[in-house]
Protein: Flagellar protein
Amino acid sequence: MFKEMITAIGTLLIICVFLYMVYFLTRHLGKIGKVRGNAKYMKILDQMSIGQDRSLMIVQINSEYLLLGATGQEIKVLEKLEEVERVNEGEDSNPELPDFKQLMEKLTKRKK
Structure:
């Protein structure tokens, strides 16, 4: 009976280690896949996911900017852009969201 219990605990331990390894590898291999290569003549300026296996990208090729739509099967040029303007995510773009620093100050004052 003691030998059977050790076998069961050992099997459970092996399964737990295997599941942890799968979790660890999927988390870190997903990050490695997003590493961008070094290209001489083109650069991905921005990328936004718009659904499962769908994204929009702004790509600079020499002095030309392209808006690309990418799916799992294809990549299409959606628009040739004349210039690219950065979108600031400051207080002006979304006034209903409170400032993080102000929220933290309020929370720390409550706890005192």
In short: Residues 37-83 form one domain. DSSP finds two helices and four strands in the chain.
